[in-house]
Design brief:
This protein is an alpha+beta fold. The protein is 21% helix and 32% strand. The protein starts with a helix and ends with a strand.
Length: 171
């Protein structure tokens, strides 16, 4: 899934320098903190974050993140699984509604992106169980979340690797 350009621009503008200490926060998808004491996975599947969490709760789990003026998004520029990424937490009327991660390591082409996608899919398969896939998109359903990993072209045709978490829809 490709984030709208406006969301990414807002994310980049909102994530300027911070006097807060560096932290990998929940976007690190459970690899653990430096002291090995990562919070337990919340209903989102990420450490310490539950669906419906408030803007303040999201900020508390990710001290480098910045909330938009209207509180509709919380954004962070920080490593995710060891690679630089932009993470956007979408906050709806009922709280945390979606998490989108886009790695900033560029891929010169979609073919180049496919190698990163295959590696990340294998890591996520080990973490979340076997995925379903279609072209350069992989899908997982956990008891509380739907997860999508995708490689999409940007405006110049280069590949962009992204990961999206959303609440699992009732069947």
């Amino acid at each position: 899934m490709r984030l709208p350009t406006s969301v990414l621009l807002i994310s980049l503008a909102a994530c300027g320098g911070s006097s807060k200490p560096a932290a990998t926060g929940p976007a690190n998808t459970g690899d653990g903190a430096a002291d090995g004491a990562a919070p337990a996975a919340g209903s989102t599947g990420l450490p310490g974050l539950d669906w419906g969490a408030s803007t303040e709760a999201v900020l508390a789990t990710n001290p480098r993140a910045t909330a938009s003026a209207d509180g509709a998004t919380v954004s962070a520029v920080a490593p995710v699984d060891g690679k630089n990424a932009i993470t956007v937490y979408e906050i709806g009327a009922s709280g945390l509604a979606m998490i989108s991660i886009e790695w900033t390591d560029g891929f010169v082409s979609m073919d180049d992106c496919s190698g990163g996608w295959k590696d990340k899919r294998a890591t996520l398969d080990a973490r979340l169980g076997s995925s379903q896939s279609d072209n350069l998109a992989a899908y997982w359903e956990t008891p509380t979340a739907s997860v999508t990993l995708a490689c999409n072209p940007n405006d110049s045709g280069a590949g962009v690797l992204s990961l999206t978490y959303a609440p699992r829809q009732a069947e």
